[in-house]
Amino acid sequence: MGIVAGTLAARLAGGAVMLGVLARGISGLKILGNLLVPDAEDLRRILRVGLPAALEGFTLWTGQWLFLEIISNLGTRDDGSAFKAAHMIGMDAEALTYLPAMAWGYAAASLVGQSLGANNPQRARAVTNAAGRHAIVIALVGTLVYLFGADLIYRVMSQEVPVRAIGAPALRFLSWYQVPLALVIVYLQAIRGAGDTRAVLLINFVGFYCIRLPIAWLMGIHLELGLIGAWSGMSIDVLCRAIATGLYFARGKWAQTKL
């Protein structure tokens, strides 16, 4: 309850500060009374982009929750908590890859929006590819860290021997899909920046619900392959989404999105 209250207070304070800054005006941005009246056309355009994005967020959150439920049901009653702990440590360690990729993705999304607004799709494609190349370098660093440092990571982050025994081999396995993960993050963000949120929703929905969850259950629980089995579903999902995203980006339909 304390965490929830703190989060709520921080967001209310941040919103109040933002309103105060915009009321005074900054860098040409200022809240004007006549702009607070809803405009039907503006609302339509916002909903065209926002509704698929909101649905995507909901499906991703639900998919992650279901995936965590699969993780929680790995192993037996005695060692089930060790699987979940190993999973959470692995996801925390993986931040070395996905947080920088998200930053490059946000940058790509902003530049894609600016480029398409200036009627320059070639520049939009170029900045996305540049961000993708940078993300690959970061992902390769993560690959080496997880491949050769998995044991050290789990020794530092857990004192439980079962957690270390489960997590370290799984993290080494996970190291091989860092490049596809970084590319998925960057290129899907770029497509979002173009306003093509429907395509992003479709790619992520199919990846999570048709690939990740079924394979994770099959390999992790039914075939009793443990955390590596469950993470196989995640890895295959990311690889398939990377291929689908790359093909969709290459087609260029995202650059023709009408808002």
Overall description:
By secondary structure, this protein is mainly alpha-helical. The chain folds into 2 domains: 37 residues, no CATH class; 218 residues, no CATH class. Helices cover 82% and strands 0% of the residues. It is built from 9 helices and no strands. Helix 2 packs parallel to helix 8 and helix 3 packs across helix 6. It is globular and about 65 Å long. The mean pLDDT is 91.
Give me the secondary-structure topology.
Elements: H1 2-24, H2 40-72, H3 80-93, H4 95-117, H5 121-157, H6 161-174, H7 178-193, H8 197-222, H9 226-251
Helix pairs in contact: 2-8, 3-5, 3-6, 4-5, 4-7, 5-6, 5-7, 6-9, 7-9, 8-9
Keywords, separated by commas or semicolons:
single chain; 259 residues; mainly alpha
